[in-house]
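User: tokens in, sequence out, please.
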């Protein structure tokens, strides 16, 4: 197989810019994460600024607290979903944690975080939608979110989804009753996951190819 390097550094930059533009036009796809993605999860949360950490966790979260949180995630019990950009950076995360069953009801709590550079693209909404349909398909009857009332993005998502919101002392508890699973919801989640897995594989191949091309470009051409 032959690889052809760009004729100049300008061509390489043009390809990079074109990829970025395509990434912003691409649909937001959500993939279920596994324990193998733990290091990327840690990098995602550590990339959040102090204010974003406060909004995500409801309290100040220094690095060691985040590290302990990520290490303690049980992927066999909870579900974690992620959105990757064209460089395979984890730009959005949704953590669906199942709470102890209460009679016939089952509740799951959702926490969502999106890196600043990827906001305004619907990442948070897609993570919410994926978590909701998975909760529905796993017999969750109530989806719960806790957030500070000044977290306008999550409050907007909650209201848009029709969640019942209770305010108290600067924070808010939001609840959404989920309908039982049906064939449509099960197939819909399966297709979403398949699309996200395929998209991730394509992005990984494109990244690896780009690295090979960059390695073949003479250093003086990049100067």
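Assistant: Sequence out:
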């Amino acid at each position: 197989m032959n690889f052809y390097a760009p004729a100049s550094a300008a061509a390489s930059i043009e390809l990079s810019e074109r990829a970025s533009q395509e990434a912003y036009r691409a649909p937001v796809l959500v993939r279920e994460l596994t324990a193998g993605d733990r290091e990327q999860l840690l990098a995602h949360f550590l990339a959040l600024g102090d204010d974003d950490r406060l909004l995500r966790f409801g309290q100040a979260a220094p690095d060691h607290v985040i590290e302990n949180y990520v290490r303690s995630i049980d992927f066999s019990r909870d579900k974690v979903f992620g959105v990757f950009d064209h460089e395979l950076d984890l730009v959005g995360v949704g953590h669906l944690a199942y709470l102890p069953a209460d009679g016939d009801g089952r509740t799951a709590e959702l926490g969502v975080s999106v890196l600043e550079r990827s906001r305004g693209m619907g990442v948070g909404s897609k993570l919410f939608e994926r978590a909701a349909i998975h909760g529905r398909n796993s017999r969750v009857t109530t989806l719960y979110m806790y957030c500070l009332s000044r977290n306008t993005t999550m409050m907007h998502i909650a209201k848009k989804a029709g969640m019942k919101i209770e305010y108290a002392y600067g924070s808010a508890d939001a609840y959404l009753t989920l309908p039982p699973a049906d064939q449509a919801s099960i197939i819909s989640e399966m297709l979403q996951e398949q699309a996200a897995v395929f998209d991730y594989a394509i992005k990984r191949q494109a990244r690896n190819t780009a690295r090979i091309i960059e390695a073949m470009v003479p250093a003086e051409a990049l100067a």
